Amino acid sequence: MKKQWWKKGSLSVLLATAVVAAGCSSQTSTNPGQTTEAPKGGNTLVISAMVDPDTLDLHKSTWVTVANGIIYEPLLTRDLEGKISPGLAEKYEVSEDGKVWTFTLRKGLRFHSGEPVTAEAVKQSFDRMMEVSPVKSIVGPVEKVEAPDELTFKVYFSSPFAPFFSVVMSGMISPVDAKKAKELGDGFGENPSGTGPVIFDKRERGASLTYKKNPDYNWGPEYAQNKGPLHVDNVVFRFLKDDDTRMMEFKKGTIHILNEVPANSVAELQSLPGVEINKTMDIGHKYIAFNNQHPLFSDVRLRKAIALAVDRDPLVQVALNGFGKPVYGPLPPTLWGYSEKIENEAKQMYARDLDQARKLMAEVGYSDTNGDGLVDKDGKPLTVELLVSPDPSYQRAAQILQSQLKEAGIDLKITVQEIATIKDRMLKKSFDMSLMYFGWYDADILYLIFEKNNSGTRMSFSRPELDDLLNKGRTEMNEEKRLKIYEEAQEILLKESPWVPLWVNETVTATRGIKGMVINPYTQGMILSDITIDK
């Protein structure tokens, strides 16, 4: 069956969002305590972002944010209602056997260098991505790519790969100017060329990233009113990690868009004149990751006991100031493959029940033998370590979890470490539990996290029947059948409890001094095309 964007319409299950995350003046200081004058020129859009990108080279970046992703554009996307919408490709088709994806490019596209965006250029970009990208495995079992004519680009798979649309929409295969990349080598990461509405201008590491508008841009999103060049002349990202500094600069008017508003600051900002608050449900959820190889957690009863000791509502209401939603099942409601049936079943199984938690711990030999409130075995209390990143909301959540687990008799020790260190410890299996996050557009995220042959199995959990289902889910092109496969996979995860899903965030963005800013709920991308600055 051939599929074309103008015929497919919206998916039957709400699809949302991903590993692609969303994130100002060249005079910005790297000193977070130093203030900055309001942007000069009157037509510069200033955006606050938390993380300075590792590189502006899409293919070599390990974490694409709006700050470096804004240069590039996907072949296909989703509109504000979730329907498949043209990007650089005006249409696409999938062969009957699901192994060949054909994209027809729009005419007249150009890279920032002036080079035309032909099918051959897209092929060269794809080839480069498959050579240098640290996350190329997510693209699937690609056999080859072809450019049979100037506007036709084909991707061939060795087996059907149903999640490929999510890969396309994520921007992972968005065309880069491969010709310029070859000329500049490693320098391409500091002087990139894509097809987006902005062109790289200058960068101050750790401080700011400045773009100027692309005057030749006339292929804006179908769902934007403005299809041509931006209404602003420049877009500047200011990298400010400290919440107090970010808030101060926003209130002063030196920042137009404040991403990732601290939950405890939303009420204050809402009271300020001219401030608008945008809320978007996140693309993945936070969870407790178990080291399932650990002697403690190799027993499912102890994993379930911890899950039953957790009360998610205080995590959302206190740690997030209410900007989130509890999650009990393996997938959040914002992600394709979510099942309300599974979520309800998970809520019945893992709603807080301290009596049941203590009963399960007693079955594996842990009980309070000395009356100190902590369960013990052979005279040793049940003590576990939880790795947590420095993120304030994570630390607040960890403290709540510590209190909740203590009520069940578990001694939880909190260790705060940088996320890179946490990931390294997880890969080395040198951890007990970790507070983690995932995001992606598709239920295939479960393959990336749990399938035995995939590098993402940091939790050391694998079951042959689960692996079989997750592999089938990748090759089944019929959407209804595919959904049933993922329901079966989620049933196994409910039964085995290799992790504890906790909550999905509601991301808050504040704006001031601008009009027309929209965030696409299906891509979580910031739509810049219609933004104007109040004079």
Could you explain the architecture of this structure?
The chain is of the alpha+beta class. It has two domains: 5-256 and 513-533, Periplasmic binding protein-like II (D-Maltodextrin-Binding Protein, domain 2); 286-506, Dipeptide-binding Protein, domain 3 (Roll), CATH 3.10.105. The protein has helices at residues 5-8, 66-69, 119-132, 164-170, 178-184, 243-252, 266-270, 300-309, 312-319, 340-350, 354-363, 392-407, 419-427, 445-450, 464-475, 479-496; strands spanning 44-49, 76-78, 84-86, 89-94, 100-105, 142-149, 152-157, 198-204, 208-213, 234-239, 257-258, 275-281, 286-290, 324-326, 376-377, 380-381, 383-388, 411-416, 433-437, 499-512, 514-515, 518-519, 526-527, 532-533. A hairpin with a 2-residue loop joins β6 and β7. The N and C termini lie far apart (52 Å). The model is unreliable at 1-41 (pLDDT under 50).
Give the overall form. Answer: globular
What is the fold named in CATH at topology level of the largest domain? Answer: D-Maltodextrin-Binding Protein, domain 2
Q: Going by CATH, what is the homologous superfamily of the largest domain?
A: Periplasmic binding protein-like II
| Category from helices, strands and their pairing | alpha+beta
The average pLDDT value, as a whole number, equals: 89
How far apart are the termini?
Answer: 52 Å
For the secondary structure, the number of strands is 24
Helix content: 25-40%
- For the record, the CATH class of the largest domain is Alpha Beta
CATH architecture assignment of the largest domain: 3-Layer(aba) Sandwich
Question: Helix segment count?
Answer: 16
Please, how many domains? 2
Q: In this structure, how is the largest beta sheet organized? A: 12 strands, mixed
- What is the rounded Rg? 24 Å
